[in-house]
Amino acid sequence: MYLGSWLSRLSRGLSRPIGKTMRPIWASLSRNLALSSQRIPEFSSFVSRTNTCGELRSSHLGQEVTLCGWIQYRRQNTFLVLRDCHGLVQILIPQDESAASVRRILCEAPVESVVRVSGTVISRPPGQENPKMPTGEIEIKVKTAELLNACKKLPFEIKDFVKKTEALRLQYRYLDLRSFQMQYNLRLRSKMVMKMREYLCNLHGFVDIETPTLFKRTPGGAKEFLVPSREPGKFYSLPQSPQQFKQLLMVGGLDRYFQVARCYRDEGSRPDRQPEFTQIDIEMSFVDQTGIQRLVEGLLQYSWPDDKDPLLIPFPSMTFAEALATYGTDKPDTRFGMKIVDTSDVFRNTEMRFLRDALAKPQGTVKAMCVPQGAEVLPIFLNAKKNWSSPFAKFIMEEERLELTRLMEIQEEDMVLLTAGDHEKACSLLGKLRLECADLLELRGVVLRDPAVFSFLWVVDFPLFLAKEERPTELESAHHPFTAPHSSDMHLLYTEPEKVRGQHYDLVLNGNEIGGGSVRIHDAQLQRYILETLLKEDVKLLSHLLQALDHGAPPHGGIALGLDRLVCLVTGAPSIRDVIAFPKSYRGHDLMSNAPDSVSAEELKPYHIHVLWPTDSEEESVSATPSKHLSS
Amino acid sequence: MYLGSWLSRLSRGLSRPIGKTMRPIWASLSRNLALSSQRIPEFSSFVSRTNTCGELRSSHLGQEVTLCGWIQYRRQNTFLVLRDCHGLVQILIPQDESAASVRRILCEAPVESVVRVSGTVISRPPGQENPKMPTGEIEIKVKTAELLNACKKLPFEIKDFVKKTEALRLQYRYLDLRSFQMQYNLRLRSKMVMKMREYLCNLHGFVDIETPTLFKRTPGGAKEFLVPSREPGKFYSLPQSPQQFKQLLMVGGLDRYFQVARCYRDEGSRPDRQPEFTQIDIEMSFVDQTGIQRLVEGLLQYSWPDDKDPLLIPFPSMTFAEALATYGTDKPDTRFGMKIVDTSDVFRNTEMRFLRDALAKPQGTVKAMCVPQGAEVLPIFLNAKKNWSSPFAKFIMEEERLELTRLMEIQEEDMVLLTAGDHEKACSLLGKLRLECADLLELRGVVLRDPAVFSFLWVVDFPLFLAKEERPTELESAHHPFTAPHSSDMHLLYTEPEKVRGQHYDLVLNGNEIGGGSVRIHDAQLQRYILETLLKEDVKLLSHLLQALDHGAPPHGGIALGLDRLVCLVTGAPSIRDVIAFPKSYRGHDLMSNAPDSVSAEELKPYHIHVLWPTDSEEESVSATPSKHLSS
Lengths: 632, 632
What we know:
Two copies of one chain form a homodimer.
Chain A: H1 3-10, H2 29-34, E1 64-75, E2 79-84, E3 87-92, H3 100-108, E4 114-123, E5 138-149, H4 158-161, H5 166-171, H6 173-176, H7 180-203, E6 207-208, E7 225-228, E8 234-238, H8 243-251, E9 256-264, E10 276-285, H9 289-303, E11 317-319, H10 320-327, E12 340-342, H11 353-360, E13 364-371, H12 374-377, E14 382-383, H13 398-408, E15 415-422, H14 423-443, E16 456-460, E17 465-467, E18 475-477, E19 504-509, E20 512-519, H15 524-534, H16 543-550, E21 556-562, H17 563-571, E22 597-598, H18 601-604, E23 609-611, H19 618-623, H20 627-630
Parallel strand pairs in A: 3-5, 6-9, 11-16
Antiparallel strand pairs in A: 1-2, 1-4, 2-3, 4-5, 7-8, 9-10, 10-21, 12-13, 13-15, 14-15, 16-19, 17-18, 19-20, 20-21
């Protein structure tokens, strides 16, 4: 919903975007966003206008006003619609000879030119009111007008803008930002963050502390951008999160820290990821898992936009094991059912070979998922309607059919998906199919995921360690090595570490992970054991943190919420790029300014680096860099 | 005023730091900082304590409390002083046999260990109250105690910590952060920024918008850190300010933008500069210079700490020319006089050769500055007391002496400094001497600069261009190339551009530049003329900005305030490192984690760079990088 279609819709006096959720119409944007504060901001302080375009109503009749804005639309050299960040107002172009210069300015300036007008707020003639436009009862009788900046011809027809690719929107981002949707998204984001700050600072005594982004490489920090320093061979690193700093702040007695933290992650090209992103970063001393969860629930409830239904807290909670078994994922979308059911017992005596083989293996299971009305719209597999149509139906015994129908409450028109194999893999597969089916059902008009519903869920009791994919006998942290083990699993650390659960918690919204955190290890000895003995990490890189834990570290824990993703879900935007003012493309490019860009050898000199062009042979690059210099 | 001396002072029940300004004592820290909000934050929500140590008073008598904190001090195994982020409280160690385990925990845990205690708030026995300690009327009769984390032996005696270098403080920053002073500085900073946000967002409708830090090299951006991308030869740049983005946001109709923006500047080693720093970044549409000035005055007044005298606004204003002529600098410290006086006319007929020679030249002047009581404490030059003692005194005619005395209101005991030469150089020299004299006078007990006085000053009407030092026939921007010329000087742009004044304004506090801004150029043609014709810049690098100005850019202007410096001056801290949680050393090192650090060749591979070690010959480096690849 961008400039073009928005312009055309506005010219009809209406501005209701097409997005999944209904939005307040243009002119009431800032008012609506402002109402959650005790006091409506003064939007015209310190500047040469007296009012914003969007705020004028019948209550302003007779007032002399000065407005500044963009020419949105002009009709028959009689009316002009002026737009500013608060909305639209109709300007009456004077027709009398004495106002020829005003008339010339308003009639000759191209659309999207910037003007200042002064005049009187008057009623529209009876019958000409526009009830769909918040300022539709009034218009401005202009006395003076000034062209502040003429808009030169745009490099494309404005009505084509919406049809063009996102690349064009990003290249001309300053035009895209004028759209209702981008204005709404960025203002809502600002407002939500402000409310979060009020909650944390003013209500709960948190301290907003900035931590460095020029840091050093963290162990395993392969996704960290490097920043060459002026010392040969020495690099800063742009960290993926302020994890170490927030823990050190707790050791430093800061007690309650938060930061709206810029973080960096170099993943190369990834759709819907950004090389720099923002998280609401929180850490507290003397807190347990429940404390952080209650804090975050209060935070989201307090900052939740007024134009949405209020959040109900506390949020439901589910163990990782349950999430996997029931939804086939660690981030279940709990807005709809279609849960996974273990049907192994139904098929203990089955004649179907692939099920029997699967069940014969250790961990072997048969999982099933029932898609309500799936047979109607997705006639592809086990169709309960047509007497169980499926290539496999004939192998299902009547007894099995009855038991399955009972267990899964299968109705006519439903579709059942069956899979056999290892528990985790079978669940994951059905978890993916569950979302695919939901997409397909919704394409066909079945409403499963109401865009007005925000379904939050805590997922807890994750395993602390995972077997490494490439070397399954070695362990790696499921989240990060600073997560504290469950106190009841502590004894397993020394015997069966793979069975230890961590005090980690994820916050999931509508099937998206929007936050994660943990109670941290505050005992240096335990931290050293996990790093050195279990994870085989080089503890030298973390010696400052281990030392800090030994010098009076309080018990502490925290969380980080992904702000871009959260605002994206709240606004219903199709991509996180729509809630970021100047995002990079999925290839990491700024299409407006053309970043990243070439840099001369001269400019690289102070940093003691040079470019290894891909045409250079591997040998050359290796021989040119003696290994003795490069050991870290 | 750090951990050591603070500990010893606290152990006497008193905590009044030595700094230039008086500080609230420990226990009332958070309360004081909180009072400016309508509501006192809940400092013990979501955690296992019921109260903070510092908040307990007689009004809590009889209450059962649970406290968490650090063991600050223990006396004769009878009393223990517990510290948390809010202050200190005395714990009575139980002496009866039944409480042996509690007694053991509290007596055996080393100082700086972390404990949780539960007990009852009781009155101190008559005569044992400590009126200097905010919690001095009460103590805690402990029932249970738990050792949460034992502090291992610190690598130095705690009392030595304060005597050690700043390097030691930075290496053990997490210990340094526990000091009263660092806690005060960081909490005051957080509170001031929060108030600024309230003023901007809630009172004046600003939108908090995050702009990218992975950007592209700006023209002349020699101080920008580079970030290699995964595309060979392509680099991001960490910008020195969001200048381009804030202007593009105005073109995008965001109207009122602000951001607490992280900025980067690679200046190599510079004392009291940081490679990353923070500015309060502001931009408005439809605003003039006065609008921005009034906004900033309101912003500072609103966010000014409650423990300081309220700010009087508007701030005084002075032209650049006046600042130079009167104070010899563009950032005058207006807390004291000692103004520079032009005494050229006094010496029109002088017999002193060096004055005559100077006056004979074009722009030649004789400048003088009177240092009150200077002769008493700085008997070095023209001493009015001893009948004008100076090697040059005999060359000063009686008539000149009388005129000088009258003009400069010279008293006995005063000292007069004379200098002759070009106006700008003479003023600059006396400007530097003025500050040197102030330092010397204050060392000798003369109070010139009251630390409780905050003297703000706007400096305006700067020249738009300066002659380049190395090539004086060429011009460069005095501030940046986006600054709008004074409307009354516009005609000079095409004839005598060096005479054009810019719509730039600096905000000065006690002789420090703490902010600067300007009304920007919103006309693409004017911007192109200045960039191309006057500054000879490559406009290709800014084509996106020039294009944006052509597509309906509103008139706009803004400012950036240096937050680190501002908070440093407000707290009276000796260095900006004392108002930053984890600063770099003056050489740009993180002494705690050892950043920047070495990185392996393997880790550099994805970025297509390699290190050019200083031992590699220049030739090798040049021949290895074909120039065709490096043109940007």
